[in-house]
Design a protein that fits this description.
elongated; 4-stranded antiparallel sheet; 228 residues; 2 domains; Alpha-Beta Plaits; alpha+beta; 60% helix
Length: 228
Amino acid sequence: MNENDINNDEIEINLAELFQYLKTKYKIILLSVIVCTAIAGLITTFLIPEKYESTARLLLKPETVESGYDYTQINANKAMVNNYIELLKGSNIQKQVATKLNLDVKEVKGSVSVTNTTDTQVIAITANTIDPKLSKDIVDNMVEVFTAEVSEKLDVKNIIIADDAEIAEAPVSPSLKKNLVIGAFLGIMLSVGMLFIRFMSDTHIHNKDEAEKYLGIPSLGVIPDFED
């Protein structure tokens, strides 16, 4: 048997011992999972505020001609989508929305996201806040200010509202189920990590089998443990 085989055998024996050690400490692991899951549930329920989303979708409508849609304008609309998104994300429109709603510009900027689905001319404006009505009001005002701006300054008349913003009936976050799973996972990782460190740092010899294994000599006898 070469040195590599000996090292492999030692690693396998250590892993087996570690697994056996963890099995004997299953109550600690289970308790850690329960405690961490409970903490995650309490934090989610009482400390993390619920967030509500409201979304409106704008469509850049192409003009129709006798043969159907004007595909030249369709391509032009696709090219303009990114420009419109940058306008919606810009401070000019968001400052106007903040003024109309008596909010700080940072509140508006931090709550609004503007996206575009690939290969479409649809722009989605979403607001995420702790107040469902406020989320809707922010989106409504974003749409109103944006359409007025592009109509007045860019003479754009083909933007229509495909979907109006609505007041959310249920929060979108936090997810109690997701956080409970994360809490359970952390409980396992923490307890197993702690037990692993204890296992690796334990240099005691616990029984005669370990004595024979690590010292390489047979035991001559065992002193019995007498109870009082």
